[in-house]
Amino acid sequence: MSLKVVVGIKWVPNTQAVRFDPKTGTLIREGVPSIVNPHDLDAVELALQLKERYGAKVTAISMAPPSAIKGLEHVIGMGIDDAILVSDRVFAGSDTLATSYVIAQTLKRIGDFDLALFGQETIDSSTAHIPAQVAGWLELPYMYYVDRVEEVDEKQRTVTVRRMLEDRLEWYQLKMPAILGVAMKSQKPRPVSIYNKLRVRMENPIQVWSNKELGLDPRCLGLKGSPTLVSKVTWTPEVPRKKQVIEGPPSEAVKKLVEKLCEEGVLPFEC
Amino acid sequence: METKFDVIVVGAGPAGASAAYTAAKRGLKVLLVERGRGAGSKQVFGGRVYAAPLREIYEGFDKEAPIHRWVRKERVSLVDGNRMVTVEYESDQAASFTTYLTQLTSWMVDRAVNAGAVFVDEVRVDSILRDGSGRVVGIDSGGERVYADIVIDAEGVNRLLLEKLGLVEKTRPSQVALGVKEVIKIGEDKINERFSVAPGEGVSWVLVGAVTGGMPGGAFIYTNKDTVSIGLVVYLETAVEMVEEPIHVMVEKLRTHPALGRLWADGDVMEYAARLTPESGYRYMPRKLAAHGLMVVGDAAGLLLNTGYTFRGVDYAALSGHMAGEAAVKALEQGDVGEENLRSLYEKPLLESFMVRDLRRHRGIEWFMSNPEFFKKYPALAAGVASKLFDLEGEAPTLLDALRSSAKEHGLSMFRLAMDMFRVVRKL
Amino acid sequence: MSTGEAKPKLIRVEDLLQRTVYDVDHRAHIVVDSEKCAKCPKKPCTYLCPASCYVLVDDRIVFSYEGCLECGTCRVICPMDAISWNFPVSGKGVQYRFS
Ligand SMILES: Cc1cc2nc3c(=O)[nH]c(=O)nc-3n(C[C@H](O)[C@H](O)[C@H](O)COP(=O)(O)OP(=O)(O)OC[C@H]3O[C@@H](n4cnc5c(N)ncnc54)[C@H](O)[C@@H]3O)c2cc1C
Ligand SMILES: Cc1cc2nc3c(=O)[nH]c(=O)nc-3n(C[C@H](O)[C@H](O)[C@H](O)COP(=O)(O)OP(=O)(O)OC[C@H]3O[C@@H](n4cnc5c(N)ncnc54)[C@H](O)[C@@H]3O)c2cc1C
Ligand code: SF4
């Protein structure tokens, strides 16, 4: 039997497009398009490499409103085999606990997967909770900041991964099934291809699962299943600027800037 | 993957969407390929569309299309510094409307999909495929090939595919103009109030003169539902020679123009956009509009009429796409997609249509469109005349006196003035 | 109009581009041969690129593709044939909404 890989993707607002209204101090959300969380594309790319290396079958899952179909089409366009959109009103308002619970139960229902890959974090919440919590719910081994899958041993049912930390590389062997958090910007996600996009139109590779399929206890879902309370939100205070302008051509200005920073003693090296 | 379609349409702008809609509605197996994400995401235009051709193509157009406001007021202004002379025409006809092309195109693509076309987005076509004997047989994207009996090229003004095919030469600065645009949100009521229009009614406004720093081109203002679209169009050939400040600064100067800016000063800039347009279609037309298995539609075919006061690109694009869709149906019925047959089914009726007749009639427009004098001296002259007539401190001059002395100030003789006017009138 | 009104400020191009939505690809869709630019007398791209993707730094053209509006101007006006120009793939690049 071939390797079975699942990739979790989140449908997020393109945060670059969210602006502050200077007059009301609120966020302008009108017409802000959603995208696949960019860091999830690293996980998609890694999964597609497993498909090439081991003939893995790759399924994308997303818990999201129906508009996320577009995001799933995008990753199928990149080469993912099929996708499941987990979508139901009862999921609305979930915090990371409830979200990870639904995702874990989705994985359980899929059943025979070997690896579940997630992005490192999202651009709209950046908690990096989901993969760890999913591993917790399912009591499976979990490794994060993974930038390379060195080897999958299908007989021994193990996977060897590399992870990249700021100051070192580490290698780990995990028992499969396992959960991996893929380091952001670690891959160069491949482009969408016309054959894959045609497959989206001709083969209907996307299923939608509601809570009818999953049959989860509503008390664990949505607002009810979300113990997290947002107690306070503050904006980063504005630091008063000295507003010094260094004149001259950039190459010289940079030298002067470095000198100034040296004087202030803020550079991490000897000047 | 061995996939074959009757028709592949490259580019889901108004031209491509309409071609796909017509061909699919008539039962053909159609693939519509667009490089953008979803439909409309790469679309930019000024702001006003003529409805008649679209009503002919799309049933229920007036009711269902994303129409912002019907244009009831047409304004043309000659701008000299902070002075301007404006002519306004009011009409009760529902001949044209304002919208976002992003929305209108998306609506058209939805119609094509409902009619049965297969729409594939996020896919850039890299070349149009030919077989050994030069017949067009399909498309290539990233090395993957898809085949069809007929390819309709609706790629728009940047004709990378037609250039690669050798059907057109590389675009020259003399053939195109750059349009740069801002969409500013001010709210529906404020638009009604400040432009003195009723709900659902709008203004189309063209300005020439100092707004482009005297460069050939012009500015436009269109009122949408709760936003205004403002922008500049400059002809690249003269702009390369004459441009003195960055084009984005020029657009910002239009937004903050002392006489205009108060119409939207409190608004929020929602989007900044830019795109090329054929200068005036006739010179941008490929030497043939069809080849074996290929038809060219819309901007790619140079089907754009710019008279200086109206811009007709969207309706021409849609109508040419529609005609190509019908031609595809007939050609496949006849089992002949050869060059001669496609030219007689598509190119010939197109060249005889009102569109190309209008393009020919307005051909002379290029003479003054590329003549900087018109964009510097005449707005100044008009403003000078108006100032002499209305900014009175002493005796009121006659109109002719005002014209004569203003012309003198701008180094134009009355004879020269008369000759230029004559040429313009004859050419319009 | 009163003459005492404060003159409205021009929005800088960086801020204008913030109003427009992008999904920037990691692959550049336009590549510029700055060796050729060095020999270009006019450098019209520095004025006519509406996104100011071409800027002069110490007399050298520095190009960045991220803010590109995909208009095609630079491709047409470049007198040195220094630009390999294409559209982005995968639906990346500019995402117009209200134009
Ligand atoms: C305090 C707090 C309160 C919140 N309250 C609400 C609320 O009331 N309503 C609301 O809608 N949201 C709320 N959220 C946001 C929501 O809980 C999270 O966005 C969501 O649980 C995912 O967490 P994240 O975005 O931080 O993902 P991370 O944990 O940073 O994501 C890591 C990876 O997990 C995967 N992943 C994440 N989300 C999904 C998904 N939905 N489907 C598939 N894969 C996924 C992706 O691969 C991603 O890269 C709240 C978040 C917090 C921190
Ligand atoms: C500033 C400005 C103002 C204008 N104002 C008006 C106006 O007020 N009224 C009016 O009627 N017209 C106006 N026009 C003209 C009008 O916008 C065009 O004539 C019209 O959009 C042309 O339609 P089209 O379908 O031929 O091309 P486009 O609208 O350019 O569509 C081409 C489509 O093809 C896609 N494409 C291109 N190459 C590829 C490829 N290789 N693979 C896949 N997809 C590809 C593009 O993404 C695009 O979606 C204006 C134009 C400009 C620039
Ligand atoms: S295509 Fe247009 S926006 Fe992009 S770099 Fe060239 S001139 Fe600038």
How are the strands ordered across the major sheet of chain A?
Answer: 11-10-9-12-8-1-6-7-13
Structural class call of chain B reads: alpha+beta
Q: Quick check: average pLDDT of chain A? A: 93
Largest sheet of chain A: 9 strands, mixed
Helix content of chain A: 25-40%
Query: Strand-residue fraction of chain A?
Result: 15-25%
Largest sheet of chain B: 9 strands, mixed
Number of strands of chain B: 19
**What's the oligomerization state?**
heterotrimer
Bound ligands, named by name, code or SMILES: flavin-adenine dinucleotide, iron/sulfur cluster
Poorly predicted sequence stretches spanning 5 or more consecutive residues of chain A: none
- Looking at the structure, the CATH topology of the largest domain in chain A is Rossmann fold
Q: Output the structural class of chain A.
A: alpha/beta
What is the highest CATH level, the class of the largest domain in chain A?
A: Alpha Beta
Name some characteristics of this structure:
heterotrimer, A: 271 residues, alpha/beta, Rossmann fold, two-stranded antiparallel ribbon, 13 strands, 30% helix, B: 428 residues, nine-stranded mixed sheet, 15 helices, binds flavin-adenine dinucleotide
Topology:
The complex is a heterotrimer of chains A (271), B (428) and C (99).
Chain A: E1 4-8, E2 11-13, E3 19-20, E4 27-28, E5 34-36, H1 38-54, E6 57-63, H2 69-78, E7 82-86, H3 96-110, E8 115-119, H4 130-138, E9 142-153, E10 158-164, E11 169-175, E12 178-182, H5 194-203, E13 206-209, H6 211-214, H7 250-264
Parallel strand pairs in A: 1-6, 1-8, 6-7, 7-13, 8-12, 9-12
Antiparallel strand pairs in A: 2-5, 3-4, 9-10, 10-11
Chain B: E1 4-10, H1 14-25, E2 30-33, E3 48-50, H2 52-57, H3 61-64, E4 69-80, E5 83-90, E6 96-98, H4 101-114, E7 118-120, E8 127-130, E9 136-141, E10 144-153, H5 160-165, E11 176-185, H6 188-194, E12 201-209, E13 217-223, E14 227-235, H7 236-242, H8 247-255, E15 268-278, E16 290-291, E17 294-296, E18 305-306, E19 311-312, H9 314-334, H10 339-352, H11 354-361, H12 365-369, H13 372-390, H14 399-409, H15 414-427
Parallel strand pairs in B: 1-2, 1-10, 2-7, 4-12, 10-17
Antiparallel strand pairs in B: 3-6, 4-5, 4-6, 8-9, 9-10, 11-14, 11-15, 12-13, 13-14, 16-17, 18-19
Chain C: H1 13-18, E1 21-23, E2 30-32, H2 34-38, H3 45-48, E3 54-57, E4 60-63, H4 73-77, E5 83-85, E6 93-95
Antiparallel strand pairs in C: 1-6, 2-5, 3-4
The structure holds flavin-adenine dinucleotide (2 copies) and iron/sulfur cluster (SF4).
Iron/sulfur cluster is lined by residues 30, 49-51, 53, 68-74 of chain C.
